[in-house]
From TrEMBL:
<dbReference type="Pfam" id="PF01609">
    <property type="entry name" value="DDE_Tnp_1"/>
</dbReference>
<feature type="region of interest" description="Disordered">
    <location>
        <begin position="1"/>
        <end position="22"/>
    </location>
</feature>
<feature type="domain" description="Transposase IS4-like">
    <location>
        <begin position="20"/>
        <end position="88"/>
    </location>
</feature>
<dbReference type="InterPro" id="IPR002559">
    <property type="entry name" value="Transposase_11"/>
</dbReference>
<protein>
    <recommendedName>
        <fullName>Transposase IS4-like domain-containing protein</fullName>
    </recommendedName>
</protein>
């Protein structure tokens, strides 16, 4: 069956090709989103999507978690795959505080050069007279 995004899956028409961490690799499947209450270690919200990245999932999952937990404000921690300015702003507007690292966007590594993460700051004590 052919879909609007021109992907064909002979066994599961709703599944989509998604990138994996290996170079030039992928898998046909689904992207499962889960929100967990860290105090009680319980899943409070989940969703299965065929969108291959997490980039636009933060606001939706955070709001679902807040609603299910019946709280007015919420603190959310996510990995850099969820980083998207509009999603972070939407959470802020909904009284959801987000903590997540900014993605590494330098092209240095891809170009075969050293990236920022390859350097360590070493403080040098001031020279004495």
């Amino acid at each position: 069956m052919k879909s609007e995004d021109k992907q064909i899956s002979l066994t599961d028409p709703d599944a989509r090709s998604m990138a994996t961490s290996g170079k030039d690799t992928g898998i046909v499947g689904y992207n499962v989103q889960i929100a967990v209450d860290t105090q009680h270690h319980l899943i409070v919200a989940h969703e299965v999507t065929n969108v291959g990245t997490d980039r636009h999932q933060l606001g939706n999952m955070a709001r679902q978690a807040r609603d299910e937990m019946a709280v007015e404000t919420l603190e959310v921690v996510a990995d850099r795959g969820y980083y998207d300015g509009e999603e972070i702003w939407a959470c802020e507007e909904a009284d959801i505080t987000v903590t997540l690292p900014k993605p590494m966007t330098s092209g240095a590594k891809a170009a075969g050069r050293f990236g920022k993460q390859d350097f360590v700051y070493v403080a040098v004590p001031p020279a004495s007279d």
